[in-house]
Each structure stands twice: as C-alpha cells, then as structure tokens.
Amino acid sequence: MSETLPSLHVREKLFVWVEKGRVRTSDGPMKGHEIAAVLLNTDNESGSRREIVMPTMRDLRLVIRAFSKARFTTIDQRNSVLAARRILDVALVTPWFSSLTILTRALTARSWAPFDDTDDLTAWARALGIPDPRSTTGLTDLYRLAIRGTSTHGALCTRITSASDRITRARAFPGPLNDAQAFVAMETLGDQWRTLCAVDETLRPYSLAARHTIAATPERPTRETATERLVIPGGPVPFRNSSTVWVVDPTSPDSDLRGGKVSGFGYDHGQFILEVTPDAKGSWSFRAAYGRQIYLVEAPFGASPRFSHKEPSPWDGGIPPVDPVQRLVPAELALAGMATSAS
Fold it and tell me: I need a labelling partner for 219 at 20 to 30 A (CA). Which of 126, 147, 189, 191 fits?
C-alpha cells in the first residue's frame, strides 16, 4: 500500500455529494456559499479549517454546475460562490488537490481497480466490502482505506498541500495577476506530485507507464571519470541536457534524494545510455547502486531533496479490509519490465 496521499487528514471532514439532483453534506442542508466558505479557508492555524471530501469526479462536476445556480443575498456570498467555482475548476484538472479529496481518485491511487470504471463508487465499495457507500459512515470508511495518517514522505506531502493552498488563494479573486500566480502554483504542485509518484512504491507504476519516472542501471566505470553512465532499458528519456535528476533507490526508500545534472544521452552499441554529472552529495547515490536497478525523476525546480523525515500526526488511519484489492500490474505493463505486484 502507498504512503499518505497529500491530504488534510488531521482536519475534520465535510462530505459533499449529489443525490437525486440535490447537493447533500454530512452536516445536513448547507447553502452554496457555506460550502464555498469551507473550501476557501486556508488558515492552518485555525481549528475551524476542514477538508472537503467528495465521492466521485462526477459529483465534483455536478457540484460545480450547482454552484452556478446557488442563491445568495449579499455580495460577499456571491464572491465566495464564484471563487469556489474557479477553485473547483482547477481541482478538476490537477493530479491532486489536498484540501478537496475525491474518494475514487484516492482509491485508484491505492489499488488497480478490478473493473473498468474507476469512478464507480459502488464498485469500489463492493470490492472493499463497504456497505452503503453514499452514507456518511460508508464514505468515512472508504476515506480511511484511501488515506493513511503517517508518512515517511511527510514534508513532500506538506509541499503539495502548500501548493494547493496557494492555488486556492490565487483563484479566490479574478484577474491576470492571480491567474499567473495560480498557474505557477499548479506547475509546482505537478512537479512535487511527480516526485511523490516516483518515491512511493505503489504510485510508481503509474509514473513509469507515463515515462515521468525512468528505470535505470548504473554501470561501474572502468576508469576514473567525473560522470556516471546509466543503461536505460526503456529507451529515450524525458530529460534534457542540464536537467537535474534525482535517484530513487528502492532499497533505501526513506533516504533523501540526491543526483546530478544530465550531461548527455543516446544509443551506444544498441543500448540507450544516459550520462549524469553527480552533484556534491550525489555520487554515492550512483556508486551504491552499480549493477542494479534504480529510478530517476526530474527534480522539481528550486526544491530541496530533504523530505524523508516523518511528520507527527494524531490520526492513525483506518483498518485495512480483510481482503483488500491488491495492486497488480497489468500484463502489458509487466512486459515492459515492471514488477507484477506491489504491497
């Protein structure tokens, strides 16, 4: 199972879903501007901040549509509703939005779905043995199976949550400057999410399939050299010359990420070779892995490699189901050299 997905898991939850054409919440009837106020709150120092949880992507789209018909009596309420619509539009297209968790998206990150429609909440509940998935109790149980409370990648998850909050604050008001700030935050969120997918052993198969993470085998040099030579079995890489790449060593999943700059790549005697000039502390990451497979991911712009420490959490997560859905790599991906299972 994967580590914690970036989430406000220690916060109180507000479950929001659509039933028979009406927006329902775990708090009972709420007006559009009241739901919007929960979404717009990014004050981490306040105990009133909550995480919104929606069952499916379809529910999210229906809620966005419902906001266009929301009623309000003051200009502040109107502004809150419009801001929420702008934020939800972004949450719909980002790989992850920490303050708004979509259960089916989180469950898909946990397990390979044994069915075609990964946005089918009923199918997930049936597979995981959760009765009445559209009730608050059922949604809570599914959330606990999708989100865990502690992580060895805590600081990285915190950065993703911080980027989500920056998007929320930028999209709260219209204007070209705010749009530019939101775009920069979305780029940051995507970079950090790509790094998390490379580090987390359960998310990694997706990243490998998308070629965001690359499997590589460092070769022991026959003479003293300033560069490291790596064989890339999957062929061409998504990196450019001078890109900074980090080494993810599956034998040391909790270590800080180090690496170096790409100095060249191309085919040599039928093998695709990548050459990397290690940074000051990156040499050992390659030397310790001579002859065995590691993974490479492009470093986020301006990011620190130190994010492996655990962060304290008062929430211990839920109890896994008796017969969890195991993540099995499909045959076509297994043929590409991936592991056939992850646990």
Answer: 191
